[in-house]
Specification:
Layout lengths: L13 E4 L10 E3 L4 E5 L6 E5 L1 E3 L3 E6 L5 E6 L4 E5 L11 E9 L5 E11 L4 E2 L7 E4 L4 E6 L13 E7 L6 E6 L2 E6 L16 E8 L5 E9 L8 E4 L2 E4 L15 H6 L5 E2 L22 E2 L5 E2 L2 E4 L7 H6 L3 E4 L32 E2 L9 E3 L1 H4 L3 H5 L3 E6 L2 E9 L3 E2 L6 E2 L11 E10 L5 E8 L9 E8 L4 E2 L4 E2 L1
Amino acid sequence: MRRIYNIAIIIAAIAILCVGCKKEGTQSFTVPSESILIEFAHAGDTGITTFQSHNISAIDVTSTPKGWSVVDIDMYRKTITVKSPESFENEEERSGTISLRGYTPNGIKVTISIYVAILETPDVNYCDAPANCYIANKPNTRYLFNANIGGSATPLNTDHIEIVWQTSDDVVKYVDLHDGVAEFYIEATEEAEDNAAKRVTPGNALIGAYDAAGELLWTWHIWVTNSNPEQQTIALNGKTLMNINLGADCNSNGEKDAAKIGSSYGLYYQWGRRTPIVGPASWNFSLNEDKTMYTGKGYERKLKYEASTATTGNISWANSNPMTMITGNKDNAYDWLFDGHEQLWSANAKSEHDPCPAGWRIPDSSVYANLTINPVDDDMAWSEAQGMYGWRLVDKNDESKSYFFTAAGRRNYLDGRLDIMNDDMERPVPWSGYYWTASTADDGMAEAMFFDLNSQTRSTWNGFSSAEPMHRANAMPVRCVRE
């Protein structure tokens, strides 16, 4: 029997039906991988998924989609083997639900439903493009990557993978691991006659590798967007830069549209950490509320905050606690690291801690050296400039080249609060923008591209720096540069 290297889609509906007067012990029956997907080229072949059970002595099949069959249930190995239709001439179904019923020795029933489907689009295989981040922008598509350190050849002692968090409960689906390769599936949000017209649910997810004891070993960021970040680029100072923030769905380009502004912020990163931190719950930073995250089972999760100590302020603890922002240590120049200022990001080459997709890295500050605020924007009335939430920056050597950067603020190094307002009493402003670079600065700081809108009247005084020294515990957006 040939194993098809593609599992992945399930509806994890579990219903427990008790038919006895007395319940003896507990029982469970689940399919962790949640479904079985068969590549279109292998229609008529078999797919296998594992199941987990406790106090289940027998399993039978109660229903299958037309043309599908369950050919084997191995109680010892705990596997279910399904055969898909070979053709669809007689209205066989391309997808559907298989219902299974497990029985305890004393007659208690446990029912589960497994989603099965024929994939109509080829897999996106990232196994030869290792990274800590993978772009997913094709609907109804399965993605593959090596479950190694940074997707590299360095193995992990992984027992299973699962979603650590995602920004909604339908960003990433059907996460599974087989023979060292991780899988996840991206569904379409809209029905359309052709797949090219369909869109994905934009957002972000973090998939974690866990050992048999449940300890988190590594994580990978899944960036789900309807943009094409690797093709939508700009040229700055001889380098190719993405025209979208890492983790964003779009570039708002100065449009005064709340949805576009919020969708352009992306994720936030402490200097040197590869794991992303979510941003504000609302586009205008209302009530300083964090965006809610969800587990793979749909449970809500919230960002945590911990002060940097000898226990928390190190790489190992940070990697194991990706949902925690580590606030600055005042005795270490407000770095999230408790002792020393390690060169975790490099201005010359991509490091193991770099959060960008394969072929991209965090830029050094020289990329932004020739930029300044567009003079037209700089002279704009306050009421007009305020609504853009960002600036068009131009090349000082050629002002015809203009690029919009969103003012997405930062997470403050002291307590993790979301700062988009410049609180300078002499020139209060409605927004500020910060973008980390890989360049370091004196006194244990690092350099960020910075700009803001400063205004008390209709005339504006606006700030810009291509290399502003900032404390490393700050969490800021980033743009990725091509290696």
